[in-house]
Amino acid sequence: MGLISSLIFAVLLGALTGNAAPLIQKRGIGADLLARFKLMEQYASAAYCANNYNSPGDQVECASGNCPLVQDADSATVAEYSREETATDVTGFVAVDHTNKLIIVSFRGSTSIDAWRTNFEFDTTATDICSGCTAHHGFWNSWLDARDRVIPAVKQASTTFPSYQITVTGHSLGAAIATLGAAQLRNSGYTAALYTFGSPRIGGTKISSYISNQSGGNYRVTHWNDPVPKLPLLTMGYVHTSPEYYINKPNKKDVLSGDIQIYEGAINLRGNTAWLLIDIEAHRWYFGSVYTCDAKKGKRGGLEIRGVEGGVDIVATF
Ligand SMILES: *[C@@H]1O[C@H](CO)[C@@H](O)[C@H](O)[C@H]1NC(C)=O
Asked: Where would I find the Fungal lipase-type domain in this sequence (predicted)?
């Protein structure tokens, strides 16, 4: 399993045609929400560490040292899975955190080039999230392979700890699966907050609008010039859930409350989308380093993605 070591984007400038929907911009978030973002980003990172998806019942820990807030909390996983027998290879855990009174559902991003190839086939498929709602078929199939592990574990944990808040998180591919998982948990009657980091677009207007309208809290966090939230492209019919919490800070810098800008709208050409020059390193750094646990120098595949966004031709080579 090789990790993608590099991603080169060549951006050919075209005319920027602004057809953006009306949007509302706010600068800055409260200290409590910032603290919650940092904690949830570390729970998303923890899903890359094998000890958190191999053997349920233990404290959530990251040997790579990038989840100190998680390790400070008194937690235990109640379900861990890595569905290597399925094509999607979906991996993650459900944990209870007694310090923060949370039930956490966390999904790992992809670590293999094969998974990324699956990610970046852009066909959509029907879902049972809502009527007429289609989503990316790879993301949806990943959630289908996870849900018989996730939903019973959430059900049991919320029966045992009814006052704990259900939170769903993930980074990258894991963020896309988290979005679909949170939507389905809400449809099943649970109140679930969703925190995603570097999520690709998950589907078309209908499902994105449906999820944006759900209550429980939708926190879609993007960072600087991370390429992944720019995919699949708007011109392929994909849009984002709203709002976007955009971290306006370069890599490896401490993020302060005022560094986060909030943009609303399924199509918002500000925030992360405004970047023309993009850098995979910004995908690997959110409030700290994400997914270092299984990091290995990977090989570059021959995958190429082309498209036009905001009047700009984008060519991505993995
Ligand atoms: C989401 O809410 C908006 C505003 O109330 C509404 O116009 C839209 O139809 C809703 N979308 C879905 C899919 O329910």
From this structure: 104-234
User: Strand 134-136 to strand 124-126: parallel, antiparallel, or no bridges (unpaired)?
Assistant: antiparallel
Closest CA to 93 of 153, 39, 179: 153
Domain 3-316 fold: Rossmann fold (3.40.50)
**Angstrom distances, CA of residue 74 to CA of 11, 98, 105:** 46, 6, 16
The atom number, within ligand 1, closest to the CA of 133 reads 13
Give me the catalytic one of 89, 145, 226, 279: 226
* Tens digits of residue pLDDT in 147-186: 999 999 999 999 999 999 999 999 998 999 999 999 999 9
Active site residue 158: no
Please provide the DSSP assignment of 116-143 as one string: HHHHT---EEE-SSSTT-EEEHHHHHHH
136 is a catalytic site residue? no
Any residues with CB less than 8 A from the CB of 244 and at least 6 apart, and which? 220, 221, 222, 229, 262, 263, 264, 268, 271, 272
Determine the atom of ligand 1 nearest the C-alpha atom of 212: 1
How far, in whole angstroms, is CA 33 from its chain's centroid? 17
Q: For 223, how many CA atoms within 13 A lie in the half-sphere containing its CB?
A: 28
Residue listed under structure tokens 């963020």: 175
Sort 168 into a burial class: Cβ within 10 Å, 0-12 / 13-18 / 19+.
buried
- Strand ranges (DSSP E) for 68-210? 75-82, 91-97, 102-107, 124-126, 134-136, 165-171, 192-197
- Show the low-confidence residues of the chain (pLDDT under 50): 1-22, 113, 295-306, 310-311, 313, 315-318
